[in-house]
Design a protein that fits this description.
about 70 residues; alpha+beta; four-stranded antiparallel β-sheet; 2 helices; about 15% helix
Length: about 70
């Protein structure tokens, strides 16, 4: 299911995590050549992606909302 990005935070390893409107979190790493997300490396880039929808596998599985650490 598609869910919009509403914010970001870093995890314990300092990787960026997107916060989705559904309450789930999803890593948004820039790890070429496997994952190409250069926008995640700057504040301006991250802000430009607010509202963009990502596939939320956790919603499809019916998982509970993620809890911020």
């Amino acid at each position: 299911m598609k869910r919009p990005i509403t914010g970001y935070h870093k995890d314990e390893q300092s990787d960026w995590v997107a916060e989705l409107a559904c309450g789930h979190f999803q890593h948004v790493r820039h790890n070429p050549p496997w994952t190409n997300r250069p926008w995640v490396e700057s504040q301006c880039g991250r802000e430009s992606m607010l509202g963009i929808e990502l596939d939320c596998i956790k919603c499809e599985r019916g998982e509970p909302k993620d809890v911020p650490s």
